[in-house]
Design brief:
Elements: E1 6-7, H1 8-24, H2 26-31, H3 42-55, H4 65-79, H5 82-98, E2 104-105, H6 107-123, H7 133-147, H8 154-171, H9 177-182, H10 187-205, E3 233-240, H11 246-253, E4 257-264, E5 268-275, H12 278-286, E6 290-298, H13 299-307, E7 313-318, H14 325-330, E8 333-336, E9 339-342, E10 345-348, H15 355-364, E11 370-372, H16 376-387, E12 392-397, H17 405-413, E13 421-425, H18 430-445, H19 450-462, E14 464-469, H20 474-478, H21 484-493, E15 495-502, E16 505-513, H22 518-528, E17 536-542, H23 546-560, E18 565-569, H24 572-578, E19 583-589
Helix pairs in contact: 1-3, 1-4, 1-10, 3-4, 3-5, 4-5, 5-6, 6-7, 7-8, 7-10, 8-10, 16-17, 18-19
Length: about 600
């Protein structure tokens, strides 16, 4: 029997089969990803973009093709990740426009809608490149369009389109020098063909392949491809507003970076760009409307994960962990940023707001900052990226009794079937988490088994103590962590509480007296509470008082050795409550 029309339900079912095929191929697509940069995330990004079609869309009997296509376009724009993901989102936006107000469509109407989707796809890019997913889309759509007048059967015409797309895919190797050098087809193009293959198989047999065995190490010359991208950060965000102009925005972004894709509609746009200035991108987008879902992936770091030398176990923290960028690189520790906002201004911690800007806004902005934990989706995407290059992961986070970050990580880890992830509650914060993460990373580098590493991790958690000294309780009151009545009593009696992380949250564990030299008195309190006869490491995090922190680092280094003292700046996760001038000192007893 032929298939002569598609309605909303059929469209969703067949497209879902294509998405399943793509999802089973993510790791393979990551391995062959060299264009536009060899950061090995194309499969993950396309999968993340399209998985929402299965996870979020509710298929309905007798649903119109118009309604279904519009919902799918909305989902993919919201969840678009990466260059290919943004192009796909724009493709679906064009298709939705092409089937507007239709209940079901014939092959000819399908071909016309695809033609519009193709045009939308090209229009999303600042500088379209042939030999990529765009070429496959063009050749597939042109075949369908050419044959639609004489082949009214969806089964037959999709089969013809697939045959042409396979030829087009093979040809991509010779259309871009980087693909030819690496000996691969374009990863985004391969992903689009995977979708078509899943669709065709479902239409022919009614079956969906749940799991496909892939070549673990495809024969390529990818290792010969060096990262020579001009820009470091793959930056993305979602803009919502009125009468958003894609063309004008693309032109303005052209001065900030390249690999520009702007997908969406007049009321919602997904922006993708490679840049060295994520903050400039976000600021520009905020001029146009409300910005959300900001991210800035470090492509140099992704390149190292994909092609550098590292162990099989990844270590991950959230940015409630205050470690310097130098220490993160040195110990190969990955970080998920928390988000924060001052009123309607939204930022990504350590990405779109600098420390100096944070302290300035904390002092001058009428809105006290609010922080929000990374979402399960943020964690899932990071775990998926890591799963292409690591066999296991240890994910260490701020205490579950203080933040939903631990829960977000747990929910995401439960969806990872192909990589075991150990989620650990640090029972700590700031540089205290940093000391624990460093100890775990050292055990990984030493080649310890996961069982041995977890024993070492739990020992480090148990033997790491953190102390927080504040110049004032004012910011704790502003953030709702400290009752105003407590501040009044402390000010009246000239008491300076020393805080720490406890099973009941951040609580006072001691105090000093007098309003002069508060941080110096705090340091003396920590020294009296610490047994320096034991092998120790010490971490110092400061809140905009680097000079004092460096002085203390030198003093501690004389007592326990300079390699055992680490310094960083307090980030917004804690800084919003500590205020400037505060300090964290963490001590860790060494040994397993």
């Amino acid at each position: 029997m032929g298939l002569h029309y598609i309605d909303g339900e059929r469209f969703h079912r067949t497209l879902s089969a294509g998405v399943r095929r793509l999802l089973s191929r993510q790791d393979y697509l990551n391995k062959i990803n060299v264009f536009p940069v060899p950061d090995s995330d194309t499969g993950t990004n396309m999968g993340f973009t399209l998985s929402s079609i299965e996870n979020s869309y509710k298929s309905r009997k007798n649903a119109s093709i118009s309604h279904t296509a519009e919902e799918i376009a909305e989902l993919t724009i919201n969840n678009a990740r990466g260059n290919s993901g943004a192009i796909l989102a724009q493709f679906f936006a064009g298709f939705a426009e092409g089937v507007k107000n239709k209940t079901k469509i014939s092959v000819i109407e399908f071909a016309e809608a695809l033609n519009l989707a193709k045009e939308f796809s090209y229009d999303a890019l600042m500088n379209p490149k042939e030999g990529t997913i765009l070429t496959i889309i063009t050749d597939w759509v042109n075949t369908i369009h050419k044959m639609s007048a004489t082949v009214p059967d969806f089964k037959k015409i999709l089969n013809l389109g697939l045959s042409e797309s396979l030829k087009s895919l093979r040809a991509t190797t010779n259309k871009l020098d980087v693909l030819s050098k690496a000996g691969v087809v374009d990863a985004g193009a391969q992903g689009f063909v995977d979708i078509l293959e899943g669709i065709n198989k479902f239409i022919k047999s009614g079956t969906v392949e749940e799991k496909i065995v892939e070549i673990k190490n495809p024969p390529t010359n990818i290792e010969s491809i060096s990262f020579n991208e001009k820009y470091r950060f793959c930056t993305e965000c979602l803009i919502q507003g009125n009468e958003l102009n894609r063309s004008r925005l693309k032109n303005r972004l052209n001065d900030i970076g390249d690999s520009i894709v702007v997908a969406g509609t007049a009321s919602k746009l997904k922006v993708h760009i490679h840049t060295d200035h994520p903050k400039k991108v976000i600021n520009l987008c905020q001029e146009l409307g409300t910005v959300s879902d900001e991210k800035a992936d470090d492509m140099l770091r992704q390149q190292h994960d994909a092609h550098g030398i590292h162990e099989d176990i990844a270590v991950l923290v959230d940015s409630g962990c205050d470690l310097s960028e130098k220490n993160l690189r040195e110990f190969n520790i990955h970080m998920i940023p928390v988000r924060l906002n001052f009123g309607n201004e939204h930022f990504v911690d350590k990405v779109t707001i600098t420390s100096s800007e944070f302290w300035e806004k904390l002092d001058s902005n009428p809105h006290h900052p609010q922080t929000s934990q990374p979402t399960p989706g943020d964690f899932l995407r990071q775990y998926q990226l890591l799963s292409s290059h690591y066999k296991q992961a240890i994910s260490l986070h701020i205490p579950a009794n203080l933040s939903g970050t631990f829960q977000s990580a747990t929910l995401a880890a439960q969806k990872m079937d192909d990589m075991p992830i150990s989620i650990l509650d640090s029972r700590n914060g700031s540089i205290g988490i940093g000391l624990i993460a460093i100890r775990i990373a050292e055990a990984v580098k030493a080649g310890k088994s996961i069982e041995e590493i977890l024993i070492i991790a739990n020992h480090a958690i148990k033997n790491t103590s953190l102390y927080l000294g504040l110049k004032t309780l004012e910011y704790g009151v502003r953030g709702g962590r400290v009752p105003n009545s407590v501040k009044k009593i402390a000010d009246l009696l000239r008491i300076n509480p020393v805080l720490s992380f406890t099973p009941r949250g951040i609580k006072s564990v001691g105090k000093t007296f007098g309003r002069k030299n508060i941080i110096k008195k705090f340091k003396h309190y920590v020294e009296k509470s610490t047994n320096f006869e034991q092998p120790l490491r010490i971490g110092i995090s400061h809140a905009n008082c680097e000079e004092i922190a460096l002085e203390y680092k030198e003093e501690f280094s004389k007592r326990i050795g300079k390699n055992n003292v680490f310094i960083s700046e307090i980030g917004p996760a804690l800084g919003a409550h500590s205020g400037p001038g505060g300090m964290v000192i963490a001590t860790q007893i060494q040994g397993d």
